[in-house]
Amino acid sequence: MRNGHIVWLLGAVLALLTSCKKGYLDIVPDNVPTLDHAFANRLEAEKYLFTCYSYLPSEGDPDRNPAFSAGDEAWTYWPMKEDFFYLDPYNIARGNQNSANPLLNYWDGFDGKSLWQGIRTCNIFLENLDKVIDLQPYEKDRWIAEAKFLKAYFHWYLFRMYGPIPIVDKNLPITATPEEVRVFRQPVDSVVNYISALLDEAAAGENSGLPLRIASATSELGRITKVAALAIKARVLVTAASPLFNGNNDFAGMKNKNGQLLFNSKYDATKWERAKDACKKAIDLAHAAGLKLYTFNPSIIEVDHATQVEMNIRNSVCEKWNSELIWGLTTDAAPTYWLQTFACPQLDPNAFNINLKGKLAPPMKIAEMFYTKHGVPIDEDKNWDYANRFKLRNVTALDTGMQEGYKTVGLHFEREPRFYADIAFDGSTWFMKNGDYNIQSKLEQYSGKKQSRLFSITGYFTKKIVSWNLVFTKTSLQTESYPWPVMRLSDLYLLYAEALNESNSSGEALTYLNQIRERAGLESVQTSWSTYSKNPTKYTNVIGLRDIIRQERCIELAFEGSRFWDLRRWKTATQVLNTPIYGWDILQSTYENYNRRVFVYNMQFVGPRDYFWPIKEDNLQINPNLVQNPGW
Question: By the 8 A CB rule, do 146 and 223 touch?
Fold first, then answer.
């Protein structure tokens, strides 16, 4: 947010209803005093386009993206007096959201970014691009498509947070009357249709508009492609078809003050058909663009099979611009630097580095979420000792991902490759390009708690999001800050599998699930459940396969900002986010005492209130046509 006065979505609102100190044109890029100058030539107009991009939230930052630290996927010690930029997401996780001064308030402005202002900036760009006299037609078409995508994405981001929102397709003129600027929230279906149509416009044209793939890797990576536009459309439509928005009676009475209903509480099966078609179209275009599931190239460094599978998983996120990345976010100069340093623990007993925080700690329920080595849930595997999962065992040379001769609990034995790729724990190993490291995190050990900061509150660490290129000494730290994967192909496959299953095409859904499982070193769903599950026919019906798809999604996309939103759209957050956070007893120094499950925090998710953000109370006074989300 440029000045502290922008509390509503339109500059015209502020000019008429508040004491805004800056003028209508003060949203142009720095050092550009007028719109005429901003669109005087190609160079200045391109700067304005990049200003539109600059409003994208920093989704690769754990303090700026609620999906990292405002849910149950990664916990941290409390209170924090340093090692943070914003405490907003951590306070949301602890039930401290409020309507007087909402946390992570991207409606009015958070981290200097109001998404309504971003939308308004896109509109100004679209309204003025014709003024540029030295712009090639193909560039003009592409820039228009990019601005339309960004406008759609900002609406989508707000919709996901707040539910029904106003639609700002055009900026109101400064001469607009107070009645004109007191806009209403629009019904869910109208918002979805608007975003979807705008994304279609952005992706239109076979040989014009957005490129199929980025040609100039040195200067344009991170900009929008046709594949990205269609993939985000698929995500929007899957969300719209999901239980939060499709057949949800909790918001049946929510209406504008003019009586207009904002939620259609009647279930509509055609929404899943529409989502299915959107996913397939995006997948087909992704394949045409050469995208495929990433696999690690062993010629880079010689590794055994288990390590190769582990790096298939880790580098599908951390390898820059890899083969399955549909859209990587590069708005910030180092988009994932802080995420990696917050996640990585002390790895070397002889090289303590204060920049390695190791504080993003998965709770025990996340560790239990991953499958056994047989590819089924730990409480379903008839050959896995679920009852004794908290008993100590000795690690042998045959055990994967752990230090031979160490002791750890049965929960850590005979688990699927994604468990060892995603999570580290006391007694586990951590493979990096410059060598293998051992995690030893009991009290006073080098990876454990030695002071009031720089430790995991649960005893687990988020290995998956740390690049294997990170290197450090006692006095230096270097890491490759990869672009944050807003969307990758495996995510799109999982969205498609979900839409297929909900559209009574379960057999085809298995095809896409199995491709992801194969890359992760697992057998097919059919083989795993038929052979090892206590419920061998679970995958043969829609309800059973729905449960499998949801768990597969939570595993495959762990620590990528997906679970937070998935639990909401599935409308399961009321159950899942009201279960306690548990970890290991990190204040103990012996095997027996450390490996005891201890209570960390009792999360509280109040439904239906917490499914959406509150609108700041001041906005309801400025615009009396706005209605608050239920419960706030």
Answer: yes
Buried b (16+ CB within 10 A) or exposed e, 50-71: ebbbebbbbbbbbbbbbbbbbb
- The H or E element that residue 43 is part of is helix 42-54
Tokens 């290995």 -> residue? 463
Q: How far is 154 from 152, CA to CA, in rounded Å?
A: 6
DSSP string, 364-415: HHHHHHS-BTTSS-TTTBTTS--TTTTSEEE--TTSTTB-TT-EEEGGGSSB
* Whether 226 contacts 233, CB under 8 Å: no
* Residue 432 DSSP symbol: E
At 565, list the tokens.
């939103």
Element (H, E) at 46: helix 42-54
| DSSP 8-state class, residue 74 | S
Whole-prediction pTM:
0.94
Indicate if the pLDDT at residue 28 is higher than 60.
no
For 11-64+104-290, CATH number out of 3.40.50.300, 3.30.360.10, 1.25.40.390, 3.40.50.1820 equals: 1.25.40.390
Cis omega before residue 89 (within 30°)?
A: no
Q: Give per-residue pLDDT as tens, 201-253.
A: 999 998 899 999 998 877 888 999 999 999 999 999 999 999 999 999 999 99
d(CA 592, CA 268): 54
- Burial call 448-485: b when 16+ CB within 10 Å, e when fewer: bbeeebbbbbbbbbbbbbbbbbbebeeeebebbbbbbb
Q: What is the full DSSP assignment across 101-121?
A: S-TT-TTT-BTTB-HHHHHHH
Q: Which of 18, 115, 174, 12 is nearest to 622 (CA)?
A: 18
Q: How far apart are CA 14 and CA 23, in angstroms?
A: 10
Containing 123, the helix (H) or strand (E) segment is: helix 115-128
Kindly report, as residue ranges, where domains of CATH 1.25.40.390 are found in the chain. 11-64+104-290
Residue 373 neighbours by CB under 8 Å, 6+ apart: 400, 414, 415, 416
At 381, phi and psi to the nearest 5? Answer: -75, 115
pLDDT digits 0-9 by tens, 46-82: 999 999 999 999 999 999 999 999 999 999 999 999 9
Q: Annotate 460-516 with DSSP letters as a single string.
A: EEE-TTS-TT-EE-SS-EE---PPEEEEEHHHHHHHHHHHHHHTT-HHHHHHHHHHH
Which of 299, 333, 282, 322 has the alpha carbon at shortest distance from 60?
333
* Secondary-structure percent of the chain, ordered helix, strand, coil, rounded to 5: 40, 10, 50
How far, in Å, CA of 262 to CA of 258, rounded? 11
Q: Please name the residues in contact with 206: beta carbons below 8 A apart, sequence gap of 6 or more.
A: none
pLDDT tens column, 563-615: 999 999 999 999 999 999 999 999 999 999 999 999 999 999 999 999 999 99
